[in-house]
């Protein structure tokens, strides 16, 4: 395949065995972990866990990624589409509230083909960095019940410096509109487990809380605060060896509180984190579990 799935549209030739381009991944799926995960937002993890499947590689490549082992170092194991379907079934049999495809942007073709052939008996979660092409998302319409995108930056200076993507907000803002168009307002079952809708994640970065406030104002202008859920994260952990000075410390409590207070003023419903969440222990072990 000649790949134009992500906003980079690099035109890389991806064969079943070999990958090129910014994501570095072949056409066939490479997966690092598949397991029940209890550390997603409460209505996604629920009491039994979210059936998370972590794809390897990444087309965004943020310098502070907590999943560096798979996003930068490409740890993972090549599997067949048939094995991917079996893994989904195994997670559902273990009690997963949903099937949660993590970092699926460069594997949209795999997810689409899987769901066309095997509709899931539980909601499907698209868990991405928010840097998704609208055209690619439209090809998934009717197959994804829950969108769980990041909304990382407003300022192009930040997205260029941290993710080599000066167009991040321009792309992500259109992507979120398309996601919401497809799934509409949040819907929960009788146990409070999310069945449909969009949860927007935002990681507050050190020294960038004013950018976070601009994002919140944009969200409030685009979506009714009651129709989506907002997840504000404080878990930024400085990666070992990072050379960007402002990213060499955790987020200060007052920075995070300013963002949470603004979200409350705007009427958003959602989820916040305790400051103890800023710990590398919250990153799941990427060790081939479940493959």
Which structural class best describes the helix and strand composition? Answer: alpha/beta
> Given the structure, what is the number of helices?
9
| Percentage of residues in helical conformation | 25-40%
The helix-strand sequence is EEEHEHEHEHEHEHHEEHEHE
Q: What percentage of the residues does DSSP assign to strands (E)?
A: 15-25%
Q: Globular, elongated, flat, extended or rod-shaped: what is the shape?
A: globular
Q: What is the residue-averaged pLDDT?
A: 94
The total of beta strands comes to 12
Task: Kindly report how far apart the N and C termini lie.
Answer: 25 Å
Topology readout:
Layout: E1 2-3, E2 12-13, E3 30-37, H1 42-45, E4 50-55, H2 68-71, E5 77-78, H3 81-93, E6 99-102, H4 108-117, E7 124-128, H5 134-138, E8 146-149, H6 156-163, H7 168-183, E9 187-188, E10 194-203, H8 209-222, E11 229-233, H9 253-265, E12 270-271
Parallel strand pairs: 4-6, 6-7, 7-8, 8-10, 10-11, 11-12
Antiparallel strand pairs: 1-2, 3-4, 3-5, 9-10
Description:
The chain is α/β, with parallel strands linked by helices and 291 residues long. It is 30% helix and 18% strand. It is built from 9 helices and 12 strands. The protein has helices at residues 42-45, 68-71, 81-93, 108-117, 134-138, 156-163, 168-183, 209-222, 253-265, and strands at residues 2-3, 12-13, 30-37, 50-55, 77-78, 99-102, 124-128, 146-149, 187-188, 194-203, 229-233, 270-271. The strands form 2 sheets. Strands 3, 4, 5, 6, 7, 8, 9, 10, 11 and 12 form a 10-stranded mixed sheet that branches. A two-stranded antiparallel sheet has the order 1-2. Strand 9 (187-188) and strand 10 form a beta hairpin. It is globular, with a radius of gyration of 18 Å. The two termini are 25 Å apart. The model has no long low-confidence stretch (mean pLDDT 94).
